Each structure stands twice: as C-alpha cells, then as structure tokens.
C-alpha cells in the first residue's frame, strides 16, 4: 500500500527564483507538516562562495544534501516539506537513499522569467549571476522518479 502524501516528505525543487520557499511553506501549511528551508543547511563556506558569485561544486553540495537527507529521514512516516534545488538526478538519488519515499515537486520556468525574479529579490545570498550555472546542470525529473513538474510561468498551458 502506498504511503499517504501527508506522511511522506515532499522535496520542492528547482533553480533559484522559481518559488521553492513560497510553495514549500504553502504546501507544508496545507498538509499540516513541518517545513525546512534548504538554505539553512548550507555551510557558511558555501554561502560565502555563492555570495561571491562562485558556483558550488558537487563536493560543496554533498554535505548539504546529506544534512537535508538526514532531516527528511527523520520525518519519514511523519511527513514534511523541504525546499532543495536538487538539480541533478544524482542529488535526488542521494536524497532518496537517505529518505526512501520522498516525492519531488519540480518548479520549472523559462530562464528569462526566473532571472527577472532573482534580480528583483532582496536579501538573498544567491546572485542572479549564478542562475546560468544552475540551468546548465539542471536535469529534469526522469520518468521513473516519483514527482510532478509545475510550470511557474503563470501562463495557461
């Protein structure tokens, strides 16, 4: 029997500026489960790197993904929502290995629109200059991955 979504961990994924925090908070409130912000799991070194406009490497991301996976594992069977870019399949595989049964909600949008949103955002360490590097490594959900893609462009599809 499949686990109900209110007891599963949902990972709201996508590049910076797609609305992961906004959607994650709304979804967690709607489901009545805790929300975790992936930015809170970054090391201070990674935050300094991104603030300086330097893209993170996989080596920078592994401890971050492991920390998010640990949080998700602790919520298994209880439910939760976490935002996490989860840009590559291997990142999502790592999260799934830590917390089997996670479900992904991929917030996707046209790069120009997302760039406008990032440029208009205030008080966030992620500069718009890093958006190109995120789109360059983004691997959409595979057909065998449990999840859904949501277009954030706001246009009828």
Question: What does this protein look like?
Answer:
- The structure is a single chain.
- The protein contains 6 helices and 5 strands.
- The termini are far apart.
- It has 157 residues and is of the alpha/beta class.
- The chain has helices at 20-31, 44-51, 58-74, 89-98, 111-120, 131-137, and strands at 9-13, 35-37, 80-83, 103-108, 147-151.
- It has one domain: Rossmann fold, CATH 3.40.50.300.
- The radius of gyration is 15 Å and the shape is globular.
- Strands 2-3-1-4-5 form a 5-stranded parallel sheet, with helices on both faces.
- Helix 3 runs parallel beside helix 4 (89-98).
Task: Produce the secondary structure layout.
Layout: E1 9-13, H1 20-31, E2 35-37, H2 44-51, H3 58-74, E3 80-83, H4 89-98, E4 103-108, H5 111-120, H6 131-137, E5 147-151
Parallel strand pairs: 1-3, 1-4, 2-3, 4-5
The overall strand count is 5
How far from one another are the termini?
33 Å
Element pattern in H and E: EHEHHEHEHHE
Indicate the overall shape: globular
Strand order of the largest sheet: 2-3-1-4-5
Helix content range: 40-55%
In DSSP terms, counting alpha (H) and pi (I) runs of 4 or more, how many helices?
6
| CATH class value | Alpha Beta
Strand proportion, as a percent range, falls in 5-15%
CATH superfamily: P-loop containing nucleotide triphosphate hydrolases
- Total number of distinct structural domains: 1
Low-confidence stretches: none
Please state the CA-atom Rg, rounded to the nearest Å: 15 Å
- CATH topology assignment: Rossmann fold
Q: Structural class given helices, strands, pairing? A: alpha/beta
Please give the CATH architecture: 3-Layer(aba) Sandwich
Give the averaged pLDDT, no decimals: 87
Sheet with most strands: 5 strands, parallel
């Amino acid at each position: 029997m499949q686990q109900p979504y209110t007891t599963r961990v949902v990972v709201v994924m996508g590049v910076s500026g797609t609305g992961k925090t906004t959607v994650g908070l709304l979804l967690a409130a709607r489901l009545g489960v805790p929300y975790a912000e992936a930015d809170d799991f970054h090391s201070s070194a990674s935050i300094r790197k991104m603030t300086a406009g330097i893209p993170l490497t996989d080596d920078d991301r592994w401890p971050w993904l492991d920390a998010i996976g640990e949080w998700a594992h602790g919520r298994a069977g209880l439910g939760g929502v976490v935002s996490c870019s989860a840009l590559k399949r291997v990142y999502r595989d790592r999260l799934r290995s830590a917390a089997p049964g996670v479900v992904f909600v991929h917030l996707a949008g046209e790069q120009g629109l997302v760039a406008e949103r990032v440029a208009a955002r205030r008080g966030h360490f992620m500069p718009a200059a890093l958006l190109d590097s995120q789109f360059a490594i983004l691997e959409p959900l595979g057909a065998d991955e449990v999840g859904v893609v949501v277009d954030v462009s706001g246009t009828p599809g």
